[in-house]
Design goal:
The complex is a heterodimer of chains A (226) and B (513).
Chain A: H1 2-19, H2 31-34, H3 58-85, H4 89-109, H5 113-138, H6 150-173, H7 189-197, H8 201-221
Chain B: H1 20-74, H2 92-101, H3 108-112, H4 118-151, H5 168-178, H6 189-205, H7 224-245, H8 249-280, H9 285-291, H10 305-321, H11 333-336, H12 346-370, H13 390-400, H14 403-421, H15 429-457, H16 463-496, H17 498-501, H18 504-509
Helix pairs in contact in B: 4-5, 4-12, 4-14, 5-12, 6-7, 6-12, 7-8, 8-10, 8-15, 10-12, 10-15, 12-14
Classes of the chains: A mainly alpha (226), B mainly alpha (513).
């Protein structure tokens, strides 16, 4: 009974932990008086930009953000290690969830709300579920363990080494003096969409062609036998 | 016959002797129940009404308090030291001064000081969310049993709490808390324990970005809709984990069905949710809600024919995403015992149910915000009394816009969920997937395309089409009014003929008998 009562505090704590990194519009004092008579927002004009004043207790919040950043960064690294070293296939998927979700929280902490939500939808809700689903449907027993051959280990290490070198090169070249935390509105949905449809149109379209090819392939595989 | 006199063929376990304190507590509880029972049975309905009213007043008081503190912080009316910007948190001494400028008592500063910090407000918001979710789940479970009973011509729970069994769900919760904590020996212990939290935490976290009215939201995110969709998508993982970790064939079957169903129904659901987003042009839920403040005919569901189809598509897809009947295959009790939660009992099982009802409320809330006018009443906001006085604010809150209207609409949609569950039979998994891939998906794509073209021409450059669009939108609104009116008429007919609709047992116990 006591243990279960302690259990009940977990949701509360986790909610607070998740709410703290999120940043939305601040509630303004005279808003209610303006609300009913206020004109409707014009169609297709997204609300963006730094409208909110400096949030209350900004200094205190920053230190809290630092703590949360290192906390979730640590969780991400630990879960990634868990993915590599866990033998059980479903546990690996759960470790992967830890890594992907804490990266999403890091995005929220850096005010990239859109990236965080997309990370959750695409990787956690989509890719991870498909991986688990595929594993459960294909493997003979769900308790199958990884037993990589030496050649596979060497190949994996080589790929990781290339990735590590590439990432380190990018990290060294980035100018960090601009400030690690972005300004509000930089990652706004409107700016993102505009960039996708103007400067980055070609990669966007190429990706959509790839997805179309995948869909055609899936439909071909799933067609009824004649 | 007293229990001690029953002879059993096995050696009975010795009962632990109850100490004086335990016996005293039990006697006291019994006494309280004996005294309060008859009073409660007569006044339970009133007490529940009063509790709802008190909750509404408490929320409003919090709102007024936050507003007052915000006003103090924005314009303290005192000289601030050079380094301190206006709008930041004030010290105790500064608060006392600011209150004295407003001729208020100085000691209030000690009360108001913590409310300046977002952490305090977050704590209040999170506690309010958890309380609300618990209340919704407890209420909805009792309500579901009553609705099921009425549909099946029986009275439903009538005894616990004496007034229409109102205390049945709290009593069940108490029972579940004290049940033995069972974990199958061959289960994956860690994942088995973790799975209920993976269901509960995302479902409740979605409420952080869910606006109950324009300013009644913990975090007004610019990607609110995406955030809520993402969290609802995470929930499927918990079902897979629970089914797999219990090491039970029924569990794994339930989990696989759930994965199939969720992955396929997410697509039409997401596509339909794009329709109102295209009309308004933002993912911020408060903005989407406030666009529809012009009364019944400006609700986005009636904007054009494609939006009107979209409401129904979304509602069916949301039923599937909450694992509600006719899509409750993951826990199909006639085939799979209880599906993915076969091996669960006690508190963990309780968490799964809380998560299910929390998610149901969230999908209903999304339908309300995106299609059905959000927190605005069917009356146009232009008719509302202006002014900042308490009276005007009260009238606006009760009759024009506010969390009360939002909650009422969501509870109505929740009722439709219950209604469908006890009316429609469960469909097979191949029928579920057929309905998604061959009916819902093409329909969602067509509405998406149609809505795009409609919005392209519904523009000031094409006055003729715009006029047609207004007429069509008005007709859609009339159709909606007709449906709502029909619902009310049928409800009244059912109420007037309730004696014919139910069995003899229920007739004795129906309200008004």
């Amino acid at each position: 009974m006591f243990k279960q009562q302690v259990c009940f505090w977990w949701p509360l704590l986790s909610l607070l932990l998740i709410a703290a990194p999120l940043r939305g519009q601040q509630v303004s004092a005279d808003a209610d008086q303006a609300a009913p008579g206020a004109p409707a927002v014009e169609v297709s004009q997204p609300v963006a930009g730094p409208q909110a004043p400096v949030p209350a207790g900004a200094a205190q919040r920053t230190s809290l953000h630092d703590v949360l950043f290192y906390l979730f960064g640590g969780i991400a690294v630990l879960s990634a290690l868990g993915v590599v070293f866990s033998g059980n296939i479903v546990r690996t998927a759960v470790w992967l969830f830890g890594a992907l979700a804490s990266v999403a929280v890091l995005f929220f902490l850096l005010l990239a709300n859109l990236l965080g939500a997309i990370q959750l939808i695409v990787y956690v809700g989509g890719v991870l579920v498909l991986i688990v689903f595929g594993v459960m449907l294909t493997s003979k027993s769900p308790s199958m363990r990884f037993q990589p051959k030496p050649a596979e280990v060497i190949g994996g290490c080589a790929v990781c080494l290339v990735l590590l070198i590439g990432l380190t090169a990018v990290l060294l070249q980035t100018d960090w003096s601009a400030g690690a935390v972005a300004q509000e509105g930089v990652f706004s949905v409107a700016a993102f969409g505009e960039a996708l449809l103007t400067d980055y149109l070609l990669p966007f379209e190429v990706a959509s062609v790839l997805l179309l090819a995948t869909m055609v392939g899936a439909a071909y595989l799933a067609r009824p036998e004649k | 016959m007293p229990l001690s006199r029953i002879t059993v063929p096995w050696t009975p376990k010795p009962q632990p002797p109850y100490g004086p304190i335990a016996s005293g507590v039990a006697a006291l509880a019994k006494l309280i129940y004996r005294i309060s029972g008859p009073i409660l049975s007569r006044t339970a309905g009133l007490i529940m009404l009063a509790a709802v009213g008190a909750t509404v007043l408490l929320v409003w008081a919090c709102r007024l308090l936050f507003d007052y503190v915000d006003g103090l912080m924005a314009a303290p009316g005192i000289e601030l030291p050079a380094g301190q910007a206006a709008g930041g948190a004030l010290g105790i001494a500064q608060l006392v001064e600011a209150l004295e400028v407003r001729s208020q008592a100085g000691w209030l500063a000690y009360v108001l000081h913590p409310f300046q910090f977002s952490l305090t407000r977050d704590l209040i918001g999170v506690v309010a969310i958890l309380g609300f979710v618990s209340l919704v789940a407890v209420f909805a479970i009792w309500w579901e049993r009553k609705v099921a009973a009425r549909i099946q011509s029986r009275p439903g729970p009538m005894r616990v709490g004496l007034w229409h069994g109102w205390a049945q769900s709290p009593a069940d919760g108490l029972k579940l808390l004290t049940k033995e904590d069972l974990i199958p020996a061959d289960a994956d212990h860690i994942l088995f324990r973790l799975a209920p939290y993976f269901a509960f935490v995302p479902a409740v976290t979605a409420y952080i970005a869910l606006p109950f009215a324009t300013y009644y939201v913990v975090r007004d995110l610019d990607v609110g809709l995406l955030f809520i969709l993402a969290l609802l998508g995470v929930e499927v993982l918990s079902t897979i984990m629970a089914g797999w970790a219990s090491n039970n064939k029924w569990g794994v079957y339930g989990a696989m069905r759930e994965a199939c169903q969720m992955v396929s129904y997410e697509i039409p659901m997401g596509m339909t949710l794009l329709l109102p987003i295209m009309c308004v042009g933002t993912l911020r839920l408060t903005t989407v809600g406030d666009v529809q403040d012009g009364g019944w005919f400006t609700w986005l569901a009636f904007k054009n024919p494609f939006m009107f189809i979209g409401v129904w598509t979304y509602f069916i897809a949301s039923l599937a995403s909450c694992k509600r009947a006719p899509f409750d295959l993951p826990e199909a009790e006639s085939e799979l015992v209880a599906g993915f939660h076969t091996e669960y009992s006690g508190y963990r099982w309780c968490l799964f149910f809380f998560a299910e009802y929390a998610a149901m409320f969230v999908v209903c809330a999304l339908a309300t915000i995106l299609f059905l006018g959000g927190w605005h009443s069917p009356l146009p906001a232009g008719w509302a009394p202006q002014g900042a006085g308490i009276g005007a604010r009260l009238v606006r809150g009760l009759f024009f816009s506010g969390p009360i209207w939002f909650t009422l609409k969501c509870v109505f949609l929740l009722y439709v969920h219950l209604w469908l569950r006890w009316t429609l039979p469960r469909i097979r998994i191949d029928q579920v997937l057929y309905a998604c891939v061959q009916v819902m998906l093409p329909l969602a794509m067509l509405t998406l395309l149609g809505n795009t073209v409609w919005l392209l021409f519904d523009h000031a450059e094409y006055p003729a089409f715009q006029a047609v669009s207004r007429v069509v939108s008005f007709i859609m609104g009339l159709v909606g009014l007709f449906l709502a009116g029909g619902f009310i008429v049928i409800m009244a007919y059912g109420w007037l003929n309730r004696w014919r609709l139910v069995g003899t047992q229920a007739q004795k116990l129906l309200p008004g008998s």
